[in-house]
């Protein structure tokens, strides 16, 4: 599975900083939008769109490959990237979670750039496996990229899909686990200690598996480029929920709540310090 051979980490950092600001701006119009879960996977999703997915010749806003946000509550990460690519409009995001808008708090199939309705955790990897296998049966060169949460790996259907993907040897499938150690209101390492070590479990299910810093876009990109192939690939990204805003990082309430005006101002100020 190959994407862009070189990846500009500095450009990715600039984009992700802008995405965080954009999500915070949108947060001021809705009471909740799962900002922290989006912040933890931004570098992963940015790398997929800008470093791995192939664009159609002559139509740069359309892709040869497929992306699924299985952790549907992280959809703001996908929405702001689709906006930056011109697939969604600024107005689309301004109408987020309003009766007259088309964007909800989880992705809905039919919205431009959204390939499946997700957010009912445990379904995304099964759909991605089916899409990858269908492309192979049809003789098409499609690749499928899917982002999951670590909490989502509590679902038995995820492990069923893991097993089937390995049985089918769908090497055009790459999964990315946002390993932020948080499942809504609790820490995975405290409530589900037997979940670890995750890498060993994924390898035991027949996947080629690797682990990197999930906020290092170049490391994410390079890990995928180095894969050997011949079977599905999964990358564990060690991340921090709420990454980039100190008072949001690994604090459960930010799974849901939008910052108030004072918190918003503090968050924007922290992000501004990154570029100063």
Characterization of this structure:
By secondary structure, the protein is of the alpha/beta class. The chain has helices at 9-27, 35-52, 75-84, 90-94, 124-137, 156-168, 188-191, 198-204, 217-225, 261-275, and strands at residues 55-56, 59-63, 66-69, 144-149, 173-179, 182-183, 186-187, 208-213, 233-238. A hairpin with a 2-residue loop joins strand 1 (55-56) and strand 2 (59-63). Helix 1 packs antiparallel against helix 2 (35-52), helix 1 packs across helix 3 (75-84) and helix 2 (35-52) crosses helix 9. The longest helix has 19 residues, at 9-27. It is globular, with a radius of gyration of 18 Å. The protein starts with 8 loop residues before the first helix and ends with a helix. 44% of the residues are buried. The mean pLDDT is 93.
What's the helix count?
A: 10
Helix content: 40-55%
Shape: globular
Instruction: Identify the strand order in the major beta sheet.
Output: 3-4-5-9-8
| Average pLDDT figure | 93
Strand content: 5-15%
Uncertain segments: none
Distance between the termini: 38 Å
How many whole angstroms does the radius of gyration measure? 18 Å
Describe the main β-sheet briefly: 5 strands, parallel
In total, the number of strands is 9
Oligomeric state of the chains? single chain
The H-and-E topology, N to C, reads as HHEEEHHHEHEEEHHEHEH
Q: Structural class, please? A: alpha/beta
């Amino acid at each position: 599975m190959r994407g862009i051979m070189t990846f500009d980490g500095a450009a990715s950092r600039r984009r992700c900083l802008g995405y965080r600001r954009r999500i915070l701006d949108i947060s001021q119009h809705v009471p909740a939008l799962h900002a922290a879960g989006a912040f933890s996977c931004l570098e992963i999703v940015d790398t997929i769109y800008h470093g791995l997915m192939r664009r159609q010749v002559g139509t740069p806003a359309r892709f040869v490959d497929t992306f699924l946000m299985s952790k549907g509550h992280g959809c703001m990460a996908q929405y702001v990237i689709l906006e930056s690519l011109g697939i969604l409009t600024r107005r689309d995001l301004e109408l987020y979670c309003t009766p007259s808008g088309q964007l909800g708090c989880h992705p809905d199939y039919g919205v431009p750039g959204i390939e499946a309705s997700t957010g009912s955790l445990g379904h995304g990897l099964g759909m991605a496996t089916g899409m990858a296998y269908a492309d192979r049966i049809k003789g098409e060169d499609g690749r499928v990229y899917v982002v999951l949460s670590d909490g989502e790996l509590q679902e038995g259907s995820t492990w069923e899909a893991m097993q089937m993907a390995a049985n089918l040897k769908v090497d055009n499938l790459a999964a990315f686990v946002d390993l932020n150690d948080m499942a809504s209101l609790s820490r995975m390492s405290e409530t589900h200690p037997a979940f670890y070590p995750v890498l060993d479990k994924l390898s035991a299910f027949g996947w080629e598996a690797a682990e990197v810093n999930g906020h290092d876009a170049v490391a994410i990109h390079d890990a995928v480029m180095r894969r050997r192939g011949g079977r599905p690939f999964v990358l564990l990204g060690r991340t921090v929920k709420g990454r980039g805003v100190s008072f949001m990082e690994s604090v459960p309430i930010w799974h849901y709540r939008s910052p108030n005006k004072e918190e918003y101002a503090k968050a924007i100020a922290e992000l501004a310090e990154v570029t100063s």
